[in-house]
């Protein structure tokens, strides 16, 4: 199918796009990479009467380092992360994660900020943002506000971004020298959305865990952190028996969502291997 008709705007400045959103936000949609929005429009699941194309505003794209933060422009394409964007374990982790997002052509157009705003429960960047404690910069005519990843994701396809607002920047803490990241996802075919995935960030003192951040994606209406399990890991050995115990506890704790791709029980089982593999990679 083709989309319902719409008015197309291609602003060339941040001020112009914020002005358009202020005036037309309720009936308009921001067009980033179009890899989710255009498909939804073609299926007539989305029928915005106006598209506001954000692709002609250079300051919305690109990567920089500010102190101990990686600053990601919202329009930065997934493919930018194919090689580490920063010489740091977080840069390595992002380049590992991006390989699981869709297929090569989609990664050339889809954007980091578009993924966050689309808020698919199985989005790799949404999970990454939750586990790495990202902060989002959201702008409107009225000003700027910063929102933590925890407050940003409200549920399936729902975020804290209001209709008159634009996500402009994502800030990811680069962590300490002891940072170690791990990621594993299970999907039916390469490029499909994950049925379950885990991303973890550990800090180790020798063989002991100094701090742990553990996240799961694809099993609930938004990515989740296993905060109660994280706290209990401090001081424990980073070895196979600890990781097996974590996986069993997480699987017991969570009642995953069911959909046409997999039942809740199936995902409950999947939680165990994806967690063990992500933790093992981080500790290796
Ligand atoms: C076959 C296929 C497989 C895929 N597999 C995966 C996968 O495995 N993992 C994954 O994470 N994704 C996957 N995707 C989705 C892909 O990653 C998209 O790029 C992403 O979800 C949306 O990014 P986008 O830049 O294309 O956003 P768009 O499609 O342009 O926009 C998505 C939504 O976000 C809003 N929006 C976008 N940017 C902003 C902004 N800066 N401020 C405010 N609102 C904004 C739009 O208005 C729209 O509502 C897949 C897509 C396809 C077609």
Describe it.
Strands 4-5-10-6-7 form a 5-stranded antiparallel beta sheet. The protein is built from 10 helices and 14 strands. The radius of gyration is 19 Å and the shape is globular. Strand 6 (135-140) and strand 7 form a beta hairpin. The mean pLDDT is 97. With 284 residues, the protein is of the alpha+beta class. Residues 29-37, 39, 54, 74, 101-102, 106, 110-111, 113-115, 117-118, 120, 123-124, 161, 166-167, 191, 193 line the site of flavin-adenine dinucleotide (FAD). Flavin-adenine dinucleotide binds next to strand 2, helix 2, helix 5 and strand 10.
List the helices and strands and how they pair.
Elements: E1 7-9, H1 14-24, E2 28-31, H2 37-42, E3 50-53, E4 63-66, E5 69-73, H3 89-98, H4 104-109, H5 112-118, H6 124-131, E6 135-140, E7 143-148, H7 149-152, E8 153-155, E9 158-159, E10 166-173, E11 179-186, E12 196-205, E13 208-217, E14 224-225, H8 227-233, H9 240-253, H10 264-283
Parallel strand pairs: 1-3, 2-3
Antiparallel strand pairs: 4-5, 5-10, 6-7, 6-10, 8-9, 11-12, 12-13, 13-14
Bound molecules: flavin-adenine dinucleotide.
Flavin-adenine dinucleotide is lined by residues 29-37, 39, 54, 74, 101-102, 106, 110-111, 113-115, 117-118, 120, 123-124, 161, 166-167, 191, 193.
